[in-house]
Amino acid sequence: MPRTKAQQREATMRALVDEGTRLFAERGYAAVGLAEIVRSAGVTKGALYHHFGSKEELFRAVLRRVQSDVADQVAAAADAEPDTWTQLTAGCRAFLTASSGRSARRIMLIDAPAVLGWNEWRAMDEAASARHLEEALAALVEDGSIPDQPVAPLVRLLSGAMNEAALWIAQSDDPGALDATDRALTRLLHALRAD
Question: Which positions make up the DNA-binding region (predicted)?
């Protein structure tokens, strides 16, 4: 049965994002050429330019997918917990685990700031995850689990710390890096709690 134009468009875009994700994760943005992406996706260079306009635009789509995948893992871990405090701690642990994987580490933490620039990367990072972290911390302030304080700076401090920790875990040769970071993060989060 022939596909509609919308189905064809969606399949082409999905193939380009799939192959872009795989290749950027394996070798990094700079080492991957457009010709390789389109050949691997089984489409023409014209199709890539039609749907994305440039390699950088394709990278943005890949980054959005990776961020969405990480956010889904964080949300699933948090949603499985019974209260706001364990939702925060489980979500933070899930973020460290998900973002220290090869695809997320390379695409989200290493290449994205370099390719897109710090300001655009931060804006995309905030759009993808800071809102959820802000909601979680605001709920903890509201229920008295952490002392009343401005939530916006706390979100940035915690988000920055977790991004750095995920990058360190991913680059570490220590097989216990994730567990050690999880223990340090647990101590850090518990320091936020109200007495």
Answer: 33-52
Same structural domain for residues 139 and 169? yes
Dist CA 7 CA 22 (whole Å)? 22
Q: Which two tokens stand for residue 13?
A: 């875009």
Q: How many whole angstroms separate alpha carbon 19 and alpha carbon 41?
A: 6
CATH number of the domain within which 28 lies? 1.10.10.60
DSSP state string for 153-183 = HHHHHHHHHHHHHHHHHHH---TTHHHHHHH
Interhelix angle for 34-41 vs 55-79, to 10°? 60
Distance CA 136, CA 84 (A): 7
- Across residues 105-118, what is the average pLDDT? 93
> Do the beta carbons of residue 141 and residue 149 sit within 8 Å?
yes
- Where do the H-state alpha helices sit in the chain? 5-27, 34-41, 45-51, 55-79, 84-99, 102-103, 112-116, 118-125, 131-142, 151-171, 177-192
Q: Which two tokens stand for residue 54?
A: 């440039």
Determine the length of the chain. 195
| Single-letter amino acid code for the residue at 62 | V
Q: Can you give the residue range of the structural domain that contains 106?
A: 60-192
DSSP letter (8 states) at residue 52: T
Number of domains in the chain: 2
Q: What confidence tens digit (pLDDT) does each residue in 27-59 have?
A: 999 999 999 999 999 999 999 999 999 999 999
